[in-house]
Design brief:
One of its GO terms (molecular function) is magnesium ion binding. Keywords: Magnesium, Metal-binding. This is Mandelate racemase/muconate lactonizing enzyme C-terminal domain-containing protein. It comes from Rhodotorula taiwanensis. The chain is of the alpha/beta class. The protein folds into two domains: 153 residues, Enolase-like, N-terminal domain (Enolase-like, domain 1); 277 residues, Alpha-Beta Barrel (TIM Barrel), CATH 3.20.20.120. Helix content is 39%, strand content 12%. It contains 18 helices and eleven strands. Strands 4, 5, 6, 7, 8, 9, 10 and 11 form an eight-stranded mixed beta sheet that branches. Helix 10 links the parallel strand 5 and strand 6. The structure holds magnesium ion.
């Protein structure tokens, strides 16, 4: 027996990590008015010292429940030989094995706590393989042959939208030009937008200051949280618009390419504004509310209603179309779809709470979305994400992953690179969410270049870029970490006194 055949996953560690973002208002929106960004963090370990890191994101209470589920899922990988795991087909088998547990499946299936817990474990397994190969995760996948890509992808329940044979054809077509795209990516980076300027809990002065800072960082796409108070939203949107549309404020910022602005309601300086209501409205309420924000000329409205309501999203999109609230032409050049891509077609974005590929299949089939916002932990890891990338490419809908929280920003740059290199072949109209919180806790945090674009992860040892410093974990593990024991009560009292934190 070769030495490698003896290497197997021997143990795992699950940690409940929580960060006190509720004390600063970071991450707040119309639905989530108090968030403590949290991670159910798992470390897989082999008997020869290899590790794989994965996390799934929550916003505080309940993270312990997710940790319990992560333990249940991770325990099933103990004893797996790396020789069986470390291949595209091996990863495909691992995913089917984890998702096919005859008992855990009952508490999903493929949704909720058990699904996001599975994401942490699946992502950890991929991270371990990428580290083993000494390649960042995106590179590991981008170097797959089309056959390997298909072997790693789950197609169960979606073959009515895309079959493995169709996927193979699509991937083979995209092999051409891959090297040129990679060179372009390395020189330019991947386009990004910022959400950090307009959290719900921020006062106007902070919004204005952060907007100016984002312009200085090179950003020309900005997103604001809306949905709790229309007057407040109109005021804050006008405030942001007054800054981002002012040529003096934007002097010195790199000029965006015309192709990157097509149909996005860009202002005179090439700035684009998007709005996100985090599921707060009923369907008709969404239509009436968003019409009142027309003057701000948003590109898209994100998560207007319940994430499971596919037909509701389709109805909102259809009803907003005549008002030109957002835009159209969200289709990559040369790809046809069953709806016209005229300039006045409003854009609707959702997906961060779409809990599995079947939900995306329906959103796409019902022509309910213009922008597909996959989440790296809501879907059960890479295997399921590849399936959604393929469906979106087939339907001509650009993928702009959800990021933020703790760790999501680290993950998504890998996913957008895979999409650009292997699947959609375009990044001209895509923008990837960027949120500038909690990066200091990661060994390989995401970074932005002077154009406001994501830099491409290039450290061969970083895997899926989710490794954290041991000191950070020791401080923020809940409830006995040093921060929670020594500092939290004092900082909480100060935030209450300053009127930032509501008990
Ligand atoms: Mg959102």
């Amino acid at each position: 027996m070769r030495k490698r055949d003896c290497v197997e996953i021997e143990s795992y560690l699950v940690e409940d990590l929580r960060f006190p973002t509720s004390l600063t208002g970071d991450g707040t929106d119309a639905m989530q008015k108090s968030c403590d960004y949290s991670a159910a963090y798992v470390t897989l370990k082999t008997n020869d010292g290899q590790v794989g890191y994965g996390l799934t994101f929550t916003i505080g209470r309940g993270n312990d429940i997710v940790c319990a589920a992560v333990s249940e899922v991770a325990s099933r990988l103990v004893g797996w030989k790396t020789a069986d795991l470390f291949s595209a087909a091996g990863m495909g088998k691992m995913w089917n094995f984890l998702l096919g547990d005859p008992q855990l499946r009952w508490i999903g299936p493929e949704k909720g706590v058990i699904h996001i817990a599975t994401a942490a474990v699946v992502n950890a397994a991929w991270d371990m393989w990428a580290r083993h190969e000494q390649k960042p995760l995106w590179q590991l996948v981008a170097e797959f042959s089309p056959e390997e890509f298909v072997a790693a992808t789950t197609f169960r329940y979606i073959t009515d939208m895309i079959t493995p044979a169709e996927a193979l054809e699509l991937l083979r077509e995209k092999e051409a030009g891959k090297a040129e795209r990679l060179a372009k990516l390395k020189s330019e980076g991947y386009p990004a937008y910022t959400t950090s300027v307009g959290w719900f809990g921020y006062p106007d002065e902070k919004v204005a200051r952060l907007t100016r800072e984002a312009i200085a960082q090179g950003f020309n796409h900005f997103k604001m949280k809306v949905g709790a108070d229309v007057k407040m939203d109109q005021r804050r949107l006008a405030l942001i618009r007054s800054i981002i549309d002012d040529p003096k404020e934007c002097a010195g910022r790199p000029t965006p390419s015309p192709e990157s602005l097509v149909g996005k309601n860009a202002g005179p300086t090439g700035s684009v504004l998007m709005i996100d209501s985090n599921q707060v409205w009923d369907v008709q309420e969404a239509v009436e509310y968003v019409k009142q924000l027309e003057d701000a000329k948003p590109w898209f409205i994100e998560e207007p209603t319940a994430p499971d309501d596919i037909l509701g999203h389709a109805s909102i999109r259809k009803q907003l179309k005549p008002h030109g609230i957002g835009v159209g032409k969200s289709l990559p050049v040369g790809i046809e779809r069953g709806v016209s891509a005229d300039e006045n077609q409003p854009a609707l974005a959702t997906g961060e709470h779409a809990h599995n590929r079947m939900c995306f299949k329906q959103l796409l089939a019902a022509e309910a979305i213009d922008v597909c916002q996959i989440d790296s932990c809501r879907l059960a890891g890479i295997n399921e994400i590849l399936a959604v990338l393929l469906m979106s490419a087939k339907m001509g809908v650009p993928v702009c992953p959800h990021a933020g929280g703790v760790g999501l920003t680290n993950y998504v740059v890998h996913l957008s690179i895979i999409d650009y290199l292997c699947v959609s072949g375009t990044k001209e109209r895509n923008v990837l969410e960027y949120v500038d919180h909690l990066h200091e806790h990661f060994t390989n945090p995401p970074t932005i270049n002077s154009r406001g674009y994501y830099n491409i992860p290039s450290d061969p040892t970083e895997g899926y870029s989710i490794g954290m410093f041991e000191e950070s974990k020791a401080a923020y593990v809940y409830p006995h970490g040093s921060y929670w024991v020594n500092d939290y009560q004092r900082e909480r009292a100060a935030a209450i006194k300053a009127g930032i934190y509501a008990v």
